[in-house]
Amino acid sequence: MSTTNTSAFKVALIQMRSGLEPPANLKAALAGIDEAKRGGADYVLTPEMTNVLENNRERLFAKIVGEEHDATLATLREIARKLSIYIHAGSLAIKVSPEKAVNRSFLIDRNGDIVARYDKIHMFDVDLAGGESYRESNTYRPGEQAVVADLPWGRLGLSVCYDLRFPALYRALAEAGASFLAIPSAFTRQTGEAHWHVLMRARAIENGCFVFAAAQGGKHEHGRETFGHSLVVDPWGKIIAEGGTEPGVIFAEIDPALVTVARGRVPSLYHGRRFELVEPTAEPTHLHAVRGAL
Q: 184 near 215, Cβ under 8 Å?
């Protein structure tokens, strides 16, 4: 593990509206990264599907390539080295076989080296109101491993979008030493309006972690509408930075010491107990006692 510098640092979240053409999406991401660097950011996170946002399998596979040939990834590595900044590509669609892609997150250090990769574990296979339906597993191969990586200021847990709904993943990341949780996303407007803020705050509160959630926002070329509202949440559950629905960059100053403070106030991270669930075979004895007292 690298030596941790517990001083404050600045995070920038790039909110995007990715379309069907990777070069245009890369141009938008680079503009955001340039603004982030000029604003003093040390760590920059882009949203899920930074390189392309396309639901149609055939059109998607016509646009994506393997990791070694992905121009977006290569350029982001070059820019990270040039600007001496951590760039976290929230996720890129990467082809891994003729039939499948992965939804892969890349953490790139100041030297332009890829220091962590994470493949989205939970596939967004849902049917929403109004006929809105998604089958991510038809196109993407799910990941199998949780991933943490060391930043100069503490340990980062990696995840992507729909992972947000599975708290056991974040507990595992926190138990592995994560002080920061990255949740780059492309939440639908419908689910975002209902659940985005409460779930992001819950993941921060229950693990005593900062949450960094760069998002896609607005009406995309192929008709999908995403929620936006990129968020930075502190370990006490307070939203300290938030975007709207338009593309842009949001900044937040991060004090890693607040993780220790929050976990000291409510140390639930250390109080969790493993238990066995059994089927009841008779009325609980405490219920008999209560009835006898009536």
A: yes
Q: Which residue has the higher pLDDT, 285 or 154?
A: 154
221 given a catalytic annotation: no
Which residue in the list 48, 54, 95, 136 is annotated as catalytic? 48
Give the chain's domains with CATH numbers.
9-293 (3.60.110.10)
Helix 189-207 and helix 167-175: axis angle, to 10°?
A: 30
48 counts as catalytic = yes
**Alpha helix stretches (DSSP H) within 157-284:** 167-175, 189-207, 257-265, 268-271
| Residue reference for tokens 């991060």 | 254
- Is 120 an annotated catalytic residue? yes
Residue 283: the pLDDT is 61
pTM, full prediction: 0.92
Q: How far is residue 227's CA from residue 193's CA, in Å, rounded to a whole number? A: 7
Separation CA 183–CA 90 (nearest Å): 8
Beta strands 86-95 and 43-45 are parallel
From the list 133, 135, 32, the residue with the least C-alpha distance to 79 is 32
Tally of CA atoms within 13 A in the half-sphere of 218 that contains its CB? 13
Torsion of the alpha carbons at 56, 57, 59 and 63, rounded to the nearest 10? 130
Task: Single out the catalytic residue among 37, 95, 120, 136.
Answer: 120
